[in-house]
Write a structure and sequence with these properties.
The protein has 316 residues and is α+β, with helices and mostly antiparallel strands. It has seven helices and 13 strands.
């Protein structure tokens, strides 16, 4: 459950933005849409849905973009640009020099923080990054601060140096026999920080708790699903042992399309040759058409194609 997301100095937002899913304390009539999680003696509440609204160029898309960039940084484990070029609509994911506000003359940190609940744990993770100015791609980037709280207890704080609080809060997630080697491990961790790498996803994962990091990274990867632009979403399909012009029909997707009244034709993924990715197509049955098919982009509506591409995310 997402509780809160914050960002600062991200594109059009020079100042901090806060996206909170915490319901107003005196709001009534929304009980049906409020999620509840009890951790220890404290109950946390979160809205099951929210709407971002505003005029054109107000920064609505940049809020979603900030979430996607932060997610990518966490899963990548560093603040270097991606070594491989990926065709994604949010180019800041691979080129972090696009992040800083372009009107800021002095260099100010880019900041992200997130609170979420998963596996009966309240995770609060905060990052402050020095990545230079707008379009400054040759800048020596560094992590200024990195802080992790679990169930409102400080686990570690990285600033000029690395500090650990009482690790008993994550005792069941620590590596085996950690207590026997705690002094040596903490000393080693403090002396092996890399300025461009996140301690959480590197040293902490390797030396302290791969179990806890696995919970965090799995949440980011499978539950924090950020769709930057729905019109650019494309889930390509590639099938093993495919032969030329073989048609692969996904029954679940077709049944869903028919149930929602979106499409009357069969939808399938067609692999034109052995090496190419298959493409979404409309299939026409019957003797007259002889099982003909054409690409969905040529025949189906924009809404149908978007539904088919997004439906696997709905299932997830």
């Amino acid at each position: 459950m997402l509780v809160e997301f914050r960002a600062k100095n991200f594109k059009s937002f020079k100042d901090e933005i806060a996206f909170s899913m915490v319901p107003a304390p005196k709001q009534k009539g929304l009980d049906y849409s409020i999620l509840k999680n009890k951790i220890g003696s404290k109950e946390y509440k979160g809205l099951s849905s929210a709407v971002i609204y505003g005029p054109n160029a107000a920064g609505k898309t940049n809020i979603i973009g900030a979430m996607e960039v932060f997610k990518t940084i966490v899963l990548r484990g560093n603040i270097r640009n991606s070594e491989r070029s990926t065709n994604v609509p949010n180019t800041a994911v691979n080129m972090l020099e696009l992040i800083p506000n372009n009107s800021v003359k002095e260099k100010i940190p880019v900041e992200f923080s997130i609170k979420f609940i998963d596996n009966n744990l309240l995770i609060d993770y905060q990052l402050s990054l020095d990545i230079g100015g707008f379009l400054e791609d040759e800048y020596n980037r560094r992590v200024l601060s990195e802080i992790l709280y679990v169930n409102e207890n400080l686990v570690f704080s990285r600033k000029d140096t690395l500090q650990f609080d009482d690790l008993k809060v994550i005792k069941e997630y620590l590596v085996n026999d950690f207590e026997d080697y705690e002094l040596g491990v903490t000393t080693l961790a403090k002396s092996n920080l890399i300025s461009e790498e996140l301690f959480l996803m590197n040293g902490f994962k390797a030396m302290f708790s791969s179990k806890l990091v696995s919970i965090i990274s799995n949440w980011f990867e499978t539950k924090f699903m950020v769709i930057y632009r729905a019109d650019s979403l494309y889930l390509s399909k590639k099938f093993l042992d495919s032969k030329k012009h073989i048609v692969f029909v996904e029954k679940t997707v077709n049944d869903a399309a028919e149930m929602f009244g979106i499409n009357s034709n069969a939808l399938a993924y067609v692999s034109p040759d052995e090496d190419s990715e298959s493409k979404l197509c409309s299939v026409f049955k019957g003797d007259a058409n002889n099982g003909a098919f054409i690409t969905a982009e040529q025949f189906e509506s924009y809404g149908t194609i978007r539904f088919i591409n997004m439906f696997p995310l709905v299932l997830n």
